Amino acid sequence: MSIDIKYFASLRDRLGRAEDRLDAATELTVAEVWAALWLDRPLPPNTLTAVNMEYAELTQRVRDGDEVAFFPPVTGG
Predict the structure, then answer these.
(1) Buried-most residue among 51, 56, 68, 75 (CB within 10 A)?
(2) pTM for the model
């Protein structure tokens, strides 16, 4: 199972890259995708997530070929 992962805005800057690819043997949740890639870094508080360009909860299952995105909350003024 192959999953494309994208990082946006300040999260991308903090991690030092814009994307990853994860090959997993089993189906994962969004939270498990993060944990598989960043064992030493917890998911920052208030991070938003999307699966295939639709907002997603951390418990949502990810399937083969899905794209998972992580991004900080949007602020404006």
Answers:
(1) 68
(2) 0.91
